[in-house]
Every structure is written in structure tokens, then in C-alpha cells.
């Protein structure tokens, strides 16, 4: 169980560092997942992405357009069934945009995403097979019902 949770944390730590190679390392490798399917990823508001090439490209785009990101994971639950593990968690995200002036920090924005991460046991350890993130609406996102 601890190895699965460590693999889950590795994804978010790699994203925080902006380390695309480490993100790729978390996902199933080419031997376990081909570009015709294999791995699946759904970022909030995105269509379904299938295959390592599409998934890697999506993370590259996110990293290129995000100056700062930090994840505070809560409600982390894991289940292991043979060679498959399911991790659910809430991603409490703090991210920053581009600063108006060089040398300054950009505005920080908070968000919340509920994620389901599905892992497969491989000879190289637990690897991410599928990630699905759904945004959580907060009271500030709801329309007034008056």
C-alpha cells in the first residue's frame, strides 16, 4: 500500500517541480502501454487523452503555461487489488500566473479537483495507468438562487 501512495505522491511532486521526465517516469512505460491506447488521462475541462504521446504533451503544455503550482492532497484513499491499485484524493491546488512586472510574483489562485488515479504493478514498480480529475465547485462558483 505504501508503494502505491509513494507512486501517487511522485506524480504531484514532479508536477510541482515542473519535471516532465519525472512525470513521464510515473506513467506506464512504452512496454506496458502503447500510443494506441494504454494510458488514459482526463484533466479538468479537457477531452479524454489516450496514449503516452498525448498524455505527455498535455503535461508539457500545462507546465509551459503554469509559472507556479503546489498541491495539498487531502482525503487520500488507496485500495490494492492484485496488480491494480486505485487512489482517490482531493487536489487542493495553489497556482500562480504570470507576473505583471519582471521579478514579481504573479497572482495566486486556488482550486480544488477530485482525482482518481489508477495504477498497475509492473516490474519497475507501480505505474500510473489512468488519471481523471474533476473540478469541485465551491460556494463562490455557485450562482445565487435568489
Automatic annotation (TrEMBL):
Gene3D superfamilies per record: 3.10.450.50
Boundaries of every SnoaL-like domain copy: 4-136
SUPFAM superfamilies reported in the protein's UniProt record: NTF2-like
Domain of life: Bacteria
Protein name: 3-dehydroquinate dehydratase
Species for this entry: Streptomyces rubellomurinus (strain ATCC 31215)
Amino acid at each position: 500500500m505504501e508503494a502505491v501512495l509513494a507512486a501517487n505522491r511522485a506524480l504531484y511532486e514532479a508536477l510541482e517541480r515542473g519535471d516532465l521526465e519525472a512525470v513521464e517516469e510515473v506513467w506506464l512505460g512504452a512496454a506496458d502501454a502503447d500510443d494506441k491506447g494504454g494510458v488514459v488521462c482526463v484533466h479538468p475541462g479537457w477531452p479524454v487523452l489516450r496514449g503516452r504521446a498525448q498524455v505527455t504533451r498535455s503535461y508539457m503544455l500545462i507546465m509551459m503555461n503554469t509559472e507556479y503550482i503546489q498541491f495539498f492532497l487531502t482525503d487520500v484513499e488507496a485500495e490494492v487489488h492484485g496488480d491494480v491499485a486505485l487512489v482517490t484524493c482531493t487536489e487542493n491546488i495553489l497556482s500562480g500566473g504570470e507576473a505583471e512586472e519582471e521579478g514579481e510574483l504573479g497572482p495566486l489562485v486556488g482550486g480544488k479537483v477530485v482525482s482518481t488515479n489508477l495504477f498497475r504493478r509492473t516490474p519497475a514498480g507501480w505505474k500510473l495507468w489512468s488519471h481523471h480529475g474533476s473540478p469541485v465547485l465551491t460556494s463562490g462558483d455557485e450562482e445565487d438562487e435568489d
